[in-house]
Design brief:
Layout: H1 3-17, H2 21-32, H3 42-58, H4 63-78, E1 94-99, E2 102-109, E3 112-115, E4 118-120, H5 123-131, H6 137-140
Antiparallel strand pairs: 1-2, 2-3, 3-4
Amino acid sequence: MSADTDARIEAEIERIRSMTIAELRALWRAKFKSDLPEAFGPDLLRWSIAQKLQEDAYGGLDRATARLLNELMVQSAKNNGRIVVPRRIKPGAVLVREWKGKSHRITVTEGGFAFEGRPYESLSEIARMITGTRWSGPRFFGLRPDKDRP
């Protein structure tokens, strides 16, 4: 972006800081083309309008990020505010898990995982190899929260 755009946005945000609540409400209606939420006080109005100005000037969220945020919002509503952010582990990463005094190293590959020189499609398969019982692989390796994890 240009320095002119940056200066213009900064000046507009500075102007917003000194606006009255009536001026903020009018600006909200002009920018968002809708009535403002009743719960919005002056600080939240200022923040929202400033955010809208910056989005208009520099662009908003890409589709993937917006979709992820929406999914997290829905998840939060379903789980009493609890959100589990999906983790993406890059190939080459090494997971280490101690089990019964022995350290186990699992390498993340393009197609799954490698353990003791063999390829595996899931962490659950590896957890079963290590423990001899069925486990959620992501839980066993600490990638998902679990209070009861040994």
